[in-house]
Amino acid sequence: MTQLPPQPISPLDGRYRPAVEGLGDFLSEAGLNRARVHVEVEWLAYLTSHSLLGSAPLADGELAELRAWAADFGQAEIDRLAEIEATTQHDVKAVEYLVREQLSRQGLDRIAELTHVCCTSEDINNLSYALTVKQAIDEVWLPKLEAVIVELARQAEQYRELPMMSRTHGQPATPTTLGKELAVFVYRLSRQVAAIGRNEYLGKFSGATGTFAAHLAADPTVDWQRVSQEFVEGLGLDWNPLTTQIESHDWQAELYRRVAHANRILHNLATDIWSYISIGYFRQIPVAGATGSSTMPHKVNPIRFENAEANLELSNAILDSLAETLVTSRWQRDLTDSSAQRNIGVGLGHSVLALDNIRRGLGQIDAAPDVLAADLDANWEVLGEAIQTVIRAEVTAGRSTISDPYAALKELTRGRRIGQAELVEFVSALEIGQDAKDRLLALTPATYIGDAAKLLDRLA
């Protein structure tokens, strides 16, 4: 067998790369290393600008050049890091040496020993992960989710007043509108967006076991807790003052649980839309040149929603595992989190892929009003709820003496298909007030939708 050229194992880096490539800027190894370089450089900038540990402020041009180098982190730095790490066998140490090389090129050897000073590797790593995960959520995942919400909201408004048979337990039930049912998902997902927006991104910067011991040994006159807080918050993160060697990762567990919750709502959406397509409530818009089935030319398969289901399940398998694994560390440090965190991008990647499929799938469906109307007209028995409720109100008001109206409607409608004529006959013979009778006789399954259309105003 001929050996293939090197190939990606993950479909996220192969077949589906265009849909998820934005995550690579943040949650790849290169993205992590770029963040590490940024943190190391900003620590040098903080130390020198505050004249700590015997340093003096850098000239404006020197600092600007150093920051520009960090911001322009690219292929040359990626390649050089690989060379250094081949010797160090330690990724963060390789980053330190890379920064030292840049200092030397700039003639800043005088501050070389400040590189990584008072830091354990986890001081750099936890801040780098917090920065990259925050950027991945804010710049990639949330915009993808919000695009789905926008499309759902558009369709909810479009179908605000389009009557639809409800199906509770899979059986015909009190009608609703298609727009209101889509609005339910808009509301649910919007709540998760708000919750994720409140998520903290915690960072620690306190040394080998979180005690500032090396810092105080180097200079006991400095308020290192204040320095740590200022530095972490200066990076745009939330400061965690009480940690072991590692930041405890609780914020990550909270975030991944929230993303997983959003995924589960999206999974519910995908299965509902798939089911509506199955019974004809939605028609799929054929894509020119696309094949629905290899043997049945008539088919347009709902593959976008099926693909989304699978990827949401894969995403949650990883995110749930991360949420469970990352909150535990033996005593002051072990490395179980190190390998786990390298899969954050995989977990979020499958969610991003699912979001892409859902958005595209929503753009390839149209409601079928004729099918919806026919289904409503075939199920007049759903008005049984309205009739027995009105009778109860009439009995309470003293305008009727009917006993057990629920039982009467149950006998008429349960397990039976009845039409308009049977219901009109039944209502006409009821001992109720004329206004109530007129309201019931005017009802149809298509008009028995309550405030379904008005409920969309709650999304504003």
From TrEMBL:
Q: Which organism is it from?
A: Leucobacter soli
The name this protein goes by in its record: Adenylosuccinate lyase
Pathway linked to the protein: Purine metabolism; IMP biosynthesis via de novo pathway; 5-amino-1-(5-phospho-D-ribosyl)imidazole-4-carboxamide from 5-amino-1-(5-phospho-D-ribosyl)imidazole-4-carboxylate: step 2/2; Purine metabolism; AMP biosynthesis via de novo pathway; AMP from IMP: step 2/2
Q: Tell me the function of this protein.
A: Catalyzes two reactions in de novo purine nucleotide biosynthesis. Catalyzes the breakdown of 5-aminoimidazole- (N-succinylocarboxamide) ribotide (SAICAR or 2-[5-amino-1-(5-phospho-beta-D-ribosyl)imidazole-4-carboxamido]succinate) to 5-aminoimidazole-4-carboxamide ribotide (AICAR or 5-amino-1-(5-phospho-beta-D-ribosyl)imidazole-4-carboxamide) and fumarate, and of adenylosuccinate (ADS or N(6)-(1,2-dicarboxyethyl)-AMP) to adenosine monophosphate (AMP) and fumarate.
Q: Which CDD domains match?
A: PurB
Which InterPro entries does this UniProt record tie to the protein?
Fumarate_lyase_CS, Fumarate_lyase_N, Pur_lyase, PurB_bact, PurB_C
Instruction: State the Gene Ontology BP annotations.
Output: IMP biosynthetic process
Entries under PANTHER family matching the protein: ADENYLOSUCCINATE LYASE
Alphabetized GO MF terms: N6-(1,2-dicarboxyethyl)AMP AMP-lyase (fumarate-forming) activity
Alphabetic keyword roster = Lyase
Q: EC number(s) for this protein?
A: 4.3.2.2
Q: Tell me the PROSITE patterns matching this sequence.
A: FUMARATE_LYASES
Give every Fumarate lyase N-terminal domain span. 59-308
Domain (Adenylosuccinate lyase PurB C-terminal): give its ranges: 329-449
